[in-house]
Structures are given as structure tokens and as C-alpha cells.
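User: C-alpha cells for this one?
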Amino acid sequence: MVIIEMKDTPQEVYRKMQENHSCRSCGQCCVNPMGMLPDEVMAVAAFLKMDASKLLSEYLVDTGGRGGDPLLKRPKKVPYEGKSGVLKGRKVCVFLQDDEDGNPSCSVYRVRPFMCRLQFCNMSPETRDGLIKWSREYYRKEMQNDGDRGLQQ
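Assistant:
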């Protein structure tokens, strides 16, 4: 179990998660898409060579409806259409697609949001709860700092 403390920096949380978990390339982490800060939205749009307004309108949704910040976005969930049996019939992040070998793969992996980098399918419930609490505070602080740079649809 990884213990995440509220005082941990993003770098410390990332290090703890990387040291204690490994990716199975199963796509389970993409069942619950994580929030994206405005700068991360812009990075994904640039990576996809897409106008940010198109990315916002076609691929992302507000998190504000669930008590979150209206500037914070997350990827839409779509039905999984790949070959992975564990994901059949489930809704997943819009950016999850099968690679050429039929394995679930993130189409924006190189620029995936920070919170996506922390997701692992084999986390203990305690680690997941700690990560959720930490991430809420992290996003709250980041959104306070970046509120002036929020994205407009």
C-alpha cells in the first residue's frame, strides 16, 4: 500500500506510485477518466493537431456538475470497441484505443494528464482513496492559481 500525504508534492506522489505499481496494459485505469487542467487540455489539443475548441466540444466534458470546478475538464466516456475481454461492454476514456497488437492503448499517452500518470489498476482501496483526496486538493490549488487562464468553449 502506498501512503499519500496531503503535504506530498506532485513529484513525490508520482515517484511513490511509480515505485510501487507497474502498468499491465489492460486499460482498466481508463474506465474512470481523470480531470485535466487547462494547460493539459492545450497539450492534448496540440498533440492531436486539433483546435482546442474542437477538443473541448467533442472529446471533453465539465467536471463542475459533480461538485468540481467548472474549468476542470475530463475526457468523455465512450463504449469500448476493442478486443480486450476485460473491457468489453464498458465505457472508457475517449482516448483509449487498441494498438496494432489489439492491446488497449492511450492515444495521447505521451501527453496524458498528470492524474492519468498516477492511475494503476492494481492499487489498493486505501491507496486509491488517498490519491483521490490528494488529487482533489491538488486540483483545487491548481485551479485557484490558473483561474485567470481558464479555457473558454
